[in-house]
Fold this protein.
Amino acid sequence: MMSVLPYLVAVWIFLTGCYGIVTSRNLIHAVGCLAVCQSATYVLLLAVGYRDGGTAPVFSDVEPGSRPVVDPVVQALALTDVVVGATVTALLLALVIQVSKRHGTVDPDELSELRG
Amino acid sequence: MTRRVRRWVLAVGGAGLAALLVAACPALPPFGGATHPYGDRVVHESLARQTANTIASVNFDQRAFDTLGELGILFASVIGTVVLLRQTRDERRAAPEPAAVSLPVRRYALIVLPVALLTGLYVVAHGQLSPGGGFQGGVVAATALHLLYLGADYRALENVRPIGLYEVGDALAASGYLVTGFAGLLGGTAFLANTLLPYGTFNTLASGGTVPLLNAAIGMEVACAVVVLLARFLDQAVEIEKESGS
Amino acid sequence: MNGWTATATAVLALGGGATVWGVATGPLGRRVVAQNLSTSLACPVLLLLAQGYGRPSYVDLALVLALLGPVGTLVFARLLAEDLEGDPPGARAATYAVAVFGATVVIVLCAVAGPGRAMVKLLVTGALLVAGNLVASRALAGGFSGSRHG
Amino acid sequence: MDDPLIVVALLLVAACATAAVAVRDPERQALVLAVLGTALAVLFTVLQAPDVGLSQLAVGSALTPLLLMLSVRKVRRRERGKGRTR
């Protein structure tokens, strides 16, 4: 069980986030759910890179080679995406504000009614 | 599409996706396993280049080209936000009401602001040694600046934040990253190859060749980007109003 | 697993569970208090983990959380001030209990670390943690509107 | 080795993510997302990824909540202003 539990948690977080996006009645809430989906990818990546009994491959306070280390590649992938993901969230929120200015609502259902 | 139809589509698609994902889980390498071929090679290579923080070595040396892509996304989303949230013709600026902030909060903000800025710089500067780097430190420093909004009011923040300067800083940092990359090309090797500077002594601030330079460029880029983004949002939320609305 | 990580596990399971429950349900006042307590609980947990894993460099995380956690709470205190005015949240007992827990963890870790650079970092983190926690909960309890009269 | 710790951190993140989706009011969701950010940072530390944890703390504790709350405020103010002119 332990060998797949982290992956299952990542799957659960991703699917929950998707459910939230589709059923959302407020675009700001949908953007928040997208942030939840993003965090699923970080959990998955870091779970793939983990090694039992390992420690971070940062050698400022441990001697190289003295302890097993976890995989740094996936950490580098997740690390950049956390920050870049936040700016993309900002871009989406800017779009939501624009939608609210143009149409006076942020409910996706009302918006699709406006389009006809 | 009505809500009910949409829910059904979601239920069917979601169930299919869930089944596929769960079926894929046992096929992944088992959690905590000992085989990490890429990780082992990266650690070896990073130690050969005297970079103590392997993750910084991946980001700013071994896969620096990927980080250039991330930089592009960051830059593009900042430009997109600035364009989307500019002041339109039917809007006007209303001076925000001065906020009443209690004395303990104000004192706390003014004491923590320099500490947080310093921590941000520390996190950027030690990026190639201890956990941290340009991405994290930039966000910390930029967030610290907004303690002025929380501890005083929006006008105090505007006084220390000439937004044009940060936009220029954003562009300068992005081009600094590119120039460091092209310098490798001029030096007779590949774009963004870490051959320009000596690798230095392991676990000192000047170690890792071009890693500290690229790290600093990213730190500046992220800090300026976050300040510009938040400035647009604060403008919209605090100052800009629709002309006919009031 | 050693004593440090075992303590961290216990705090995470009990305190973390309680704050998630508190932030997801109930009136707005309770939710903001739970958010504030979550950062001030996570900070000592991170310190305990740094000690348990034998990695002093992990203390940077606790330092950043001690700095930015209260800032996040101040964001909510500022932007939800109107909604919170009606029923100012006051969870004095829980706030002080968490502050005392954080201070205890910092003091114990200082005693273990002994005098030096690591101890200074721990003390700075602890001071920021406790001060930030108390100021943020004060701000939530109406600190932003408190000075309108004086 | 540190299995219980990993399991607790994973379950905490899963519970928090579920709560973040289930809470429908954007202001209250921003509060849950702030807690989710902290829980994720602890999980990343447990998975020995302090760099990612630091990133998540820097972004999740103050930046994302501030962006979300400012957007909510802007949208609310517009809707209120619209109500007044009608």
Remarks:
- Chain C touches chain B at residues 57-58, 60-61, 63-64, 67-68, 70-71, 74-75, 78, 124, 128, 131-132, 135, 138-139, 143-148 (CB under 8 Å).
